[in-house]
């Protein structure tokens, strides 16, 4: 057998390899990747903190155990009794950071899921029908992408009014075109595959082809993008809350809102900004590390 025949046979075997085997191979690669494991560990840590916040936090988020210790010129920092110090109202900063994980992760996850759902809908319409439908959908996507994401999020959140749901909807909308363009590109690439052409030649209808073959084989990059989007969603949610567009209830802690409340005390109590800030950075880092390694495991083009 000639070298060209061997290469052709190898390529044929790779094309015919079931998607399930590719996923198993990607999973094995992830389990051996220390960076992916660290990212997963960071995510699992924050998820567990959010779930078991009442058991971890020594005080309720709105309790004021150190109210008598606060003076106009003194806000106590970290100590044996209050690990992260106290805030300007005498509340335990450690307890508020722990409970804040709930709101911050909730906003990031919900916004990403909503954005992915909207992007999948537009992407499927554009990728499955093509033609005028594709043109109209992609022009809408192009218009949305032409506007800076954070600026659009601020405008949407301000229009809807301050609140966590406004932040979620705003972040979801700015992520819709990202998922739509990604899925549409993947589906267009799959439409020219041999198995799709064979199904069309056999008279299989468009709907079974799209939902049963093209979409399942195009969804993996979208899942990877969702993992990366979670990191940016957490940062964007913190940014909107910092600008006063998040939840208005001071009894419900959220990392971005905690940063906004500490602006007046940065010189005298820098610990109030450090701990929620580092929580945002580490949580976003965990999702980014896992997302990048997941992309490398699934797509050979990104492997080093």
UniProtKB/TrEMBL annotation:
GO BP of this protein: transmembrane transport
Source taxon at top rank: Bacteria
Cellular localisation: Cell membrane
Chief localization: membrane
Family the UniProt entry places it in: Belongs to the binding-protein-dependent transport system permease family.
One CC-aspect GO term: plasma membrane
Topological category with respect to the lipid bilayer: Multi-pass membrane protein
Domain ABC transmembrane type-1 span(s) in chain numbering: 101-291
Alphabetical keyword list: Cell membrane, Membrane, Transmembrane, Transmembrane helix, Transport
Listed SUPFAM superfamilies: MetI-like
Protein name stated in the entry: ABC transporter permease
Residue ranges of the TM segments: 35-57, 105-129, 136-158, 164-183, 222-245, 265-287
């Amino acid at each position: 057998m000639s070298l060209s025949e061997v290469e052709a046979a190898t390529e044929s075997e790779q094309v015919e390899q079931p998607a399930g085997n590719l996923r198993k191979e990607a999973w094995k690669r992830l389990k051996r990747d220390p960076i992916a494991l660290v990212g997963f560990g960071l995510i699992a840590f924050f998820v567990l903190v959010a779930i078991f916040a009442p058991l971890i936090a020594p005080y309720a988020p709105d309790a004021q155990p150190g109210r008598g210790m606060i003076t106009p010129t003194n806000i106590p920092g970290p100590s044996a009794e209050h690990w992260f110090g106290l805030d300007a109202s005498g509340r335990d900063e450690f307890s508020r950071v722990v409970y804040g994980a709930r709101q911050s992760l909730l906003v990031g996850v919900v916004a990403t899921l909503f954005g992915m759902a909207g992007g999948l809908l537009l992407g499927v319409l554009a990728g499955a029908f093509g033609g005028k439908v594709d043109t109209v959908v992609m022009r809408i996507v192009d218009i949305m992408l032409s506007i800076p994401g954070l600026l659009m999020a601020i405008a949407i959140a301000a229009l809807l009014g301050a609140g966590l749901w406004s932040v979620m909807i705003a972040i979801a909308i700015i992520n819709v075109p990202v998922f739509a363009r990604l899925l549409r590109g993947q589906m267009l690439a799959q439409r020219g595959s041999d198995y799709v052409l064979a199904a069309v030649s056999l008279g299989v209808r468009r709907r079974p082809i799209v939902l049963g073959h093209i979409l399942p084989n195009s969804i993996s990059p979208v899942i990877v993008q969702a993992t990366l989007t979670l990191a940016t969603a957490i940062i964007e949610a913190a940014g909107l809350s910092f600008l006063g567009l998040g939840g208005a209830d001071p009894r419900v802690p959220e990392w971005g809102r905690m940063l906004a409340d500490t602006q007046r005390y940065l010189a005298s109590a820098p610990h109030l900004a450090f701990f929620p800030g580092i929580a945002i950075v580490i949580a976003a880092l965990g999702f980014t590390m896992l997302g990048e390694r997941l992309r490398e495991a699934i797509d050979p083009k990104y492997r080093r």
